[in-house]
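User: Some background: our group keeps a shared notebook of sequences we're curious about, and every so often someone picks one and asks for a predicted structure to add to the entry. Today it's my turn. The entry only has the sequence so far, pasted here. Could you supply the structure so I can complete it?
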Amino acid sequence: MEYRVVYRSLANELQWGRSMPVRIALKFLLIISIVACATPRSIRAQADPSQSSVTSAPAAMVAGTSGYNRPPKNILDVMHAPSPPVPLVSPKEDTILLVTWQDYPPISRVATPFLRLAGVRVEPKNHSKHDTPGGYGITPCATNFDLVHIADSAQIPITLPANACPGEPIWAADGKRFAFVNIASEAVELWIGDAKTGEIHRVPGAHLNPMLNDEMQWMPDQKTLLVKLVPNGMGAPPAEPVMPVGPSIQETGGEKGQSSTYETRDTLGNRHDEDVFDYFAVSQLAFVDATTSGITPVGKPGNYELLSPAPDGRHIVVSAIHKPYSYITTYDRFPQQVEIWDLSESPQVHVHTIASLPLADRVPIDGVPLGPREFAWRATEPATLVWAEALDGGDWNVNVPSRDKIMFLKAPFDSPAVEITRSEQRYVGFQWSENPSVALLNEWDRNRHWRRAFAMDVDNPQRRPRLLWDLSTDEHYANPGYPVERQLANGSRVIRQEGDAIYLSGAGSSPAGDRPFLDRLNVDTLKSGRLFRSDKTSYERFLSFTGPDTQRFLTWHQSPVDPPNVYARSLGKSLDASAGEATVASTSVAITHIPDPAPAVRGIKKRLVRYKRADGLDLSFTLYTPPGYQEGARVPTILYAYPLDYADPAKAGQVTGSQETFTRLYEYRLLLLGGYAIIDNASFPIVGDPKKAYDTYLDQLVADAKAAVDEAVRLGVADPQRIGVTGHSHGALMTANLVAHSDLFRAGAATSGSYNKTLTPFGFQNEVRSVWQAQDVYLKVSPFFFADKVKTPLLIVHGAEDANPGTTPLQSQKLYEAIRGNGGTARLVVLPHEPHWYTAMESNEQLIYEMLRWFDKYVKDAPR
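Assistant: Of course. Here's the predicted structure to add to the notebook entry:
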């Protein structure tokens, strides 16, 4: 659940991911959800009383009649508690939608049959997407919508339909309405709500097709929705042939094609798969009148992917996927026809062809395809299309003066596109401000882990772009934040600007942890003033202003004991402040009053710990102690980490995150209720040249782990003879390597990992060399080849339907077999129907049961 929250928080807080034409982050989100019943079964789990005064979790674990096991009741109570809602502020900044998401759906939903179609999973019964973008978890359901009117803090509960599975609401730019999808049993429905009354209604006959995304969006008039519908009269999907129609054939003519490992997700395999893909991908575009619910089809059915209306409301850029398809890559690399549709003579459509893009199945690792890409409309003009084209063959490894050129094409689209600028590094997108003469051009250097932003006047080539910031993507302390945006009346998002000033909101990372801020930056003088900074005893981030007046704004406030709530802050007098602190006084008042969903968790304490690696590198972790912990007592401890790559050692030790956030328990953190301390999010930097990221991986991994363990022991919390380690995905690889190459831990638990990197020969994580270029590295980082050295007990957990090509279930199966065959101690648990992130309540209960049982046996109760 944390990853879903992080994903949404980043998109809202940084206000970058949802507005940029290209998104270089937020690649996954975890969704997990609710329910289960069971009968008890006793298993003894008791801490060493001579080492700790902490009361461990009740000994009883329970087994469900379905065959799933469950952890003790005190853990179940926390798992079943609802999550705090997420705030969605209306574009008019006068209303908030509080959306509560289901954390753990029942296994019955996760087990719904689905089809694997070129990188997307589709449930054939209702045409819904089974997974999140990237295939990491099940598409989430909201459980509650509540409207909050900011002026008087009035809260209106919205009555959702019985057994509803709503998606995230999308506000109309005028703030009068919101729309959302509902995943019903037979169709993906379209619903529209009234922002004043909270009343909602379903649009009859609107059966949406979300397979290729962009299934629903507001048109610039904010009275009409542009949707993708499942065409009428589809009939049954193509039946599986009783006899094969022929062999599956692929051929290469000798051309080099370094497709990334991660592009082989659920690919097509034969002609029947192609037919099924076409059946479920096809959509009928249509307009829906939000007032009358009338539906007006536009154009002919097609396999439409990109769908974006121009600010003028007259033009739409449309991309349609067509054959020939590929069996080695996902649909986003398939051939596409990119067109602009002119709707001025509707229902007739006048078409302007922009690009015919061929199959892109030979893109360099972490590169981009050739030809136009990343199409987006200029927000400050009626209809000007912007895109980028690679000048380096799409390959990061090629040295060229400029990597991309950026093209403009203006209505009426009967003249050639014009090159308006070039980017020295990879183009990441424009952010348009309210002032048409100011736009931010963003670019990214993968090789250096670097980003830059320029303020430029795209209409005046004589004015040189001005560098706004130029810093490492690993730089957190000096991160200037991201521009605050607002929506224009036509729905376009622009940077909020007052004269020469814009506003920046950021995480505010510091050696003491994150302290979010709001700055006012003069783009002419580049001088900034800090209007707000979260205090040191809470975590409070900027949400939005409350209208045209920038003297009042909304924040999302929380502390370790206070659940997140919306506050309204008013700026006051100027202050004499020290560096980095707010130079303006402000007062706040609570707008919402969300209660604590799990008071039992408040007994858990946490603190930020800073320390050094043996080579002097600064590191940190958050140390959690269990309820009832007495200072000085040594308790069994679990370390959790996820290694990250850094080009600059000076940036590797920077502290991110905050110990002042509202404490929530999920996954391994639930072990706190079993009497364990948690070394959480320990810094595990892998420092070096990004082109050779993993040459020293093992040495640094062990050094990171030893530094964290030694510090937890020095603090008097961790018992050096009772420490376990766990990690997920890339962290699972870390876990398996640590139990193979160190003696720091008594046991490990690795979930959804990849343990034989030769099975991902075209790169993994941030390693862009192939196995043929760095064979020794691939072997050394793979614990499979060191299974004979794994004598520390290792719990291996995997989802049976993991869509991530780098972490197929085969990876866990083969590691288990290798450890077993070499006489090691291991347990393999495969969770039915689960993707990369485990979703169902039953699966997560089983996971915690397994981890608690494993660590109790081999860590807490292990012989000294």
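Suggested note for the entry: Residues 1-59 have pLDDT under 50 and may be disordered. The longest helix spans residues 841-860.
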